[in-house]
Specification:
It is a single chain. It is built from four helices and four strands; from the N terminus they run E-H-H-E-E-H-E-H. By secondary structure, it is an alpha+beta fold. The chain has a four-stranded antiparallel β-sheet with strand order 2-3-1-4. It comes from Streptomyces fructofermentans. InterPro entries: GYD/TTHA1554 (IPR014845). This is GYD domain-containing protein.
């Protein structure tokens, strides 16, 4: 199954709710991905541009998109970005296919 890396940030209101009622949001994330047949590999909070990161496995892009849409539509986040991760073998396949594409730079 494909892997996905999500980066998210909470709204100030969400942080206020979590301060008042701390909860393990990894359990919620796990239930969301499992509802589409996927698996949560990790859930981390961080300092920096994003408040947290998730590593997910989902059956396909549509399933992951459904989870992302449900989470984003919930209103607790100020940002949510998901990146499809490729294995080394998938990247090697892409490199081999890229060699066959005759790219032409603009204006040449």
């Amino acid at each position: 199954m494909p892997l996905y890396l999500s980066r998210f940030s909470y709204t100030p209101e969400t942080w206020a709710r979590l301060i008042g009622h701390p909860e393990d949001r990894a359990k919620a994330a796990q239930s969301y991905i499992e509802s589409v047949g996927g698996r949560l590999h990790g859930f981390w909070y961080a300092f920096g541009t994003h408040d947290g990161y998730n590593l997910w496995e989902a059956p396909d892009d549509v399933s992951m998109a459904a989870v992302a849409l449900a989470i984003s539509g919930g209103g607790a986040l100020s940002s949510f970005e998901t990146t499809v991760l490729l294995t080394v073998d998938e990247t090697l396949d892409a490199l081999r296919k890229a060699e066959q594409i005759r790219y032409r730079a603009p204006g040449t």
